[in-house]
Amino acid sequence: MIYVVRQGDNLYNIARAHNTTVATIVALNEIPDPDVLVVGQALVLPETPNPNRPTIDTNGYVEWYTAEIPESLIAQLRRRAPLLTYMMPFSYEVRRDGTLTPLDWGSISEIANANQSATAIVLTNIENNAFSDTLAHTILNDTTLQDLIIGAALSEASKKGAKDIHLDFEYLLAEDKQRYVEFLNRFRQRAHAQGLTISAAVPPKTSANQPGKWYQGHDYKGIGEAVDFVVIMTYEWGYSGGPPMAVSPIGPVRQVLEYTITEIPPEKVMMGQNLYGYDWTLPYKAGNPPARGLSPQQAVALARNQNAAISYDPIAEAPFFHYWSNGVEHVVWFEDARSIEAKFNLLKELKLRGISYWHMGFAFPQNWALLQEMFHVKKR
After folding, report:
1. Strands (E), the chain
2. Confidence (pLDDT) at 49
3. Rg of the Cα trace of the chain?
4. φ/ψ bin of 87: left (φ > 0), alpha (ψ from -120 to 50), beta (otherwise)
5. What domains can you pick out in the chain, each with its CATH number?
6. What share of the chain is helix, strand, coil (3-state, %, to 5)?
7. Which among 47, 63, 170, 225 is annotated as catalytic?
8. Strand bridging mode 328-333 / 318-325
9. Which of 11, 62, 84, 295 could be disulfide-bonded to 363 (CB atoms 3.0-4.6 Å)?
10. How far apart, in whole angstroms, are the C-alpha atoms of residue 133 and residue 189?
11. pLDDT by residue (tens digit) across 232-251?
């Protein structure tokens, strides 16, 4: 269950009122200082899981920006692996000669194997640190090049013991929409022959012919028929370069997923979920420095340090707070137990395959506590 901290609360009184212990609440929520709570902070309190709770798939993308995977990220993976169906190291960039950029997984395979989590080879059309429509266009119009990429991916899957090939091709040209579906079908035939599944990440659309560079090259129906499952990127409404708002407000997320399941069977659909929020400076103006990303734990710590009460937007189903620093006003939108419970309830209502997290490394203990309480996690 979820308890929202009020003025005058302390952990001892909360624990006593709910027949639990301070130590249990501290452990579930990873509270750094039990003597300091934030008004509006959402705490998960222990509750016996329903034995009849639904079974879902979960995925955690694993991204890092250094030559070696940081120990803090490895530690989090070890801790959360029991609740992950898939771990997806991000990413192998496809090259114009049909090869893939190298990616050192460190101990990811070992952690996955120890926890019966599947891994995936994630392929992207990233070139020079950005998704490239011209790179994708070159690939999608050259079946010889496609065969080289498919072969390289299947070879890497064999080396790594991966069970899935996952394509995250973004910003495709409208003229390449059908060619991308054909590429996925070619990929599926060879992946299935090797005993692997194939999946794809797609932008959050609300109609078949939605305009815009992010959406124009993705045919939900065709992609859904070609792959074993899809990840819908239902986040980034609030983004670092845009105006302050919830990263994944429940209304737009619902709208996308309700459209999605008219094109793709719900048992193939994984809802995307951010594990982060953003700290914007105000007033917002286009061209401002980008908002700073932060984890839910960091957001609560910031509110505590700034003596700011946390508010909750019941329309967006998301927490936020304001604070001042060096004469500049800030607003922080992030995720908490209430916002993730709203997403979990939507997932159950629409009977989706599961949830996919972007990305591991952001501390959000309430997510994992509620996930365990509300679902069984499938292992593949």
Report:
1. 2-4, 42-44, 55-63, 86-90, 92-93, 118-124, 126-127, 130-131, 164-168, 197-202, 229-232, 269-274, 277-282, 292-294, 311-313, 318-325, 328-333, 354-358, 376-377
2. 86
3. 21
4. beta
5. 1-47 (3.10.350.10), 55-280+338-377 (3.20.20.80)
6. 35, 25, 40
7. 170
8. antiparallel
9. 295
10. 25
11. 999 999 999 999 999 999 99
Catalytic status, residue 93: no
The two three-digit tokens of residue 54, written as one number: 């639904």
* Helical ranges in 220-264 per DSSP H: 220-226, 250-263
CA distance 86 to 62: 10
Tokens of 246: 């919830």
Closest CA to 336 of 357, 315, 363: 363
Q: Are strands 229-232 and 269-274 parallel, antiparallel or unpaired?
A: parallel
For the chain, count helices (H), then strands (E).
Answer: 12, 19
What strand order describes the sheet that includes 318-325? 292-294, 277-282, 328-333, 318-325, 311-313
Whether a cis peptide bond, with omega within 30° of 0, leads into 283 is: yes
- 């939108």: which residue's tokens? 333
CA distance readout (Å), 206 to 258, 273, 373: 8, 17, 31
State how far the Cα of 4 lies from the Cα of 103, in Å rounded to an integer.
Answer: 42
Q: What pLDDT digit, counting tens, does each position of 309-342 carry?
A: 999 999 999 999 999 999 999 999 999 999 999 9
- Block mean pLDDT (10 aa), the chain, length 380: 97 97 98 96 94 97 92 96 98 98 96 98 98 98 98 98 98 98 98 98 96 95 99 97 98 99 99 98 94 98 98 99 97 99 99 98 97 96
The encoded tokens of residue 321 equal 């707070």
> C-alpha angle with apex 231: 168 to 150, nearest 5 degrees?
40
User: Residues 217, 173: contact at Cβ < 8 Å?
Assistant: yes
